[in-house]
Amino acid sequence: MMEQLLPFPVERLLQMGLGFFWTITYILIILKSLEDRKVGIPFAALCANITWEAIFSFMFPYEPVQFTINVIWFGLDCIILLLFIRYSKGIFPSTFRYKYAILFSSLAAAFLINLGITLEFHDWEGKYSGFGMNFMMSLLFIVMLLRQGTLGQSIYIGYSKLAGTLCASILFYSLYPKSILLWILYILILILDVIYIILIRHHATKKVKRAIN
Length: 213
Hints:
Elements: H1 8-36, H2 43-59, H3 64-86, H4 96-120, H5 127-148, H6 155-175, H7 180-212
Helix pairs in contact: 1-3, 1-6, 2-3, 2-4, 2-5, 5-7, 6-7
């Protein structure tokens, strides 16, 4: 049940902040993917994101402002998905039929899980699935960075993701201050995002030192 600890104008500002910073995050991912010919978002996180946005844009739409934000995110994630398909050599089987069977079955599974969480917990704002997949993304970003270095990733992506998620965390704390699960997710995501920024800064420093030497 919503309690709204913060005044509505502040909550609206936080909503616009999360929309802005996450939109910047997606745009930066697209630009870095084109530059490096490598998508810097894990496939599982991409499937979770794009299906969440589809559900809360077209099945259970928010009020007009958040609806607009969700549709923008969905469009940007569609572009990222196309780039993922284009640059996914070595990730999927080379056979066309198997490649797209894995792709569509993964999207279908992510859609059903997101929909199931929404219906099971009557989560019409998508808060549990949204912060859950945010946690998964933060964790997988670190794993991807350790495996493939900074290809497809940048510290600016880390900063914008951190800023957008902080806006979302403060907003939903205002709406659901008694949710222990959300509190845990806020803290874990923040810790992982800070670790990601530290690691990517370390990678960038090492790259500069190698270039100088």
